[in-house]
Amino acid sequence: MRAAITAILFLVLPVFCFSQQPNAPLKVNDYKKLTSYEELTIFVHELDAKSDLLKVEKIGNSVKWRDLYALTFSTTEFGKDTSKIKVLVFAQQHGNEQSGKEGALLLAKELLNPENRYLFDRIDFALVPQMNPDGSEANKRRNANDMDLNRNHLILTEPETFALHAFFDKFRFEVTMDVHEYSPYGGEWEKFGYRKNSDITVGTTTNLNVSKKLRRLSDKRYLPFILKYLDDRKFTSFEYCPGGPPDSGYIRHSTFDINDGRQSLGIQNTLSFIQEGMNGKDDSIENLQHRAEGQMTGMRGLLEFAYTNKDEIKRLVSAEREKLISGRSGEKISVQSEHVSNGQNLQIPLLSYYSGNDSVVTVHDYRPVVKSLYNVKKPVGYLIPVDRPPLMQWANSQSLKCVPFKNTGEYKIEQYMINHVDSIDFEGDIVANPGVSVREFPITITDHDYYFLSTAQLKGNMIVLALEPKSMLGLATYTKYAGLLKSWESFPVLRVVEK
């Protein structure tokens, strides 16, 4: 009899332990109150304490020293089983975009349900529910340094973005997603008579230097999958299409800049996405349950896609990253691009302000294609002068392999001359566009004058985009590095090319 009772208790105990796991604060608060940083902290640690699947790792701090947490889900030691695919999702870079954080916390609880455990036979999953706790507490877009974190992924001056990239560099995730909200409201749209109305929009990598094969997999396979996945679960969705309104501004797909969460990881040949839920009109509470559950569903769909296509994704990412690491100098890198039409119109779902009903509107000025305007040949590497500490600080923040230069005479050294500095339109912003000429460097370089930054590394294409003077995405477009471009002076960073 005692043995029978013990057996019954053994069977019941896991169910009992699961029932004691806490609900997400949003649900506890009946979806009427945003989750505070303190509530988030308590919740994730309670989940950790009650689950063998989840561990909470502190990956860094905000400006105001609030902890940044990564929730790692694995049936083994995280990151050690090379047969698994590593997936990273991070949310709320913008503090006033609350549904991503709330959806991530709902997902964390959902993934601990026994029926979802199968995912982690193939996936090691890391979830960063809140990138900007300081902004979240103030319900403001920027961090406590008044910096837009999603424009900081190239220069990495903020502790939050630095922490995320250090975490990524540690595990080299094959699949990533950056979760945001978009606002469809505004005077121009009201004047047009319609507004965007999709619960979830999804964007892929658009920079031309990201692997074509990865971009094709994103566009042809993941987008159809996730849009159907969301539709089947009663959430409206569409491909991310900023711009407009139609007939007053063109509509494109997402930026090709590499300073955001999606492209900064995608440029390392990662299968990388952005997911944007629809913001509330009057405040962050409006329709919050539906918004958070939509975000959770999109994140959950990403895991399902990674699970189903694990081997294919891993093989493709590995092969395309090997091309970066092997350092194929001489290939063309696009440093200036533009959005152009392919002759097609876009049928975009919108909400009519007149009827209050969903409608479909034809967009004639639709520019879905990114076209290169200016290419450079990828060098073997660059030489950074030792008397330019900000450049070395940048290289160190990006964890780049940088060593003192030994001049063996094996390569040719090139120097840019800045003949003049004009400007060029980049997605509505005006950035510097210097006229340059190239000459062989006339001075013998002695050891320790320069540090050598090889392009034969995972961030090799990013290095080219950052350090080429004509790059519309480069360091010289940021105020901190504006002094790199001076008319009638030489560009301080040198190119190392094969003879």
Q: Any overview of this molecule?
A:
The chain is an alpha+beta fold and 499 residues long. The chain folds into three domains: 13-326, Zn peptidases (Aminopeptidase), CATH 3.40.630; 336-371, no CATH class; 379-498, no CATH class. It has 13 helices and 22 strands. It has helices at residues 2-19, 25-28, 37-49, 98-111, 133-138, 159-171, 187-192, 212-232, 261-266, 288-308, 310-326, 389-397, 460-467; strands at 54-61, 67-73, 85-91, 123-128, 175-182, 194-196, 200-203, 237-239, 251-252, 271-278, 332-340, 346-352, 358-363, 366-367, 369-377, 381-385, 402-404, 411-426, 429-440, 450-454, 489-490, 494-498. The strands form five sheets. Strands 1-2-4-3-5-10-7-8 form an eight-stranded mixed sheet, with helices on both faces. Strands 16, 17, 18, 19, 20, 21 and 22 form a seven-stranded antiparallel sheet that branches.
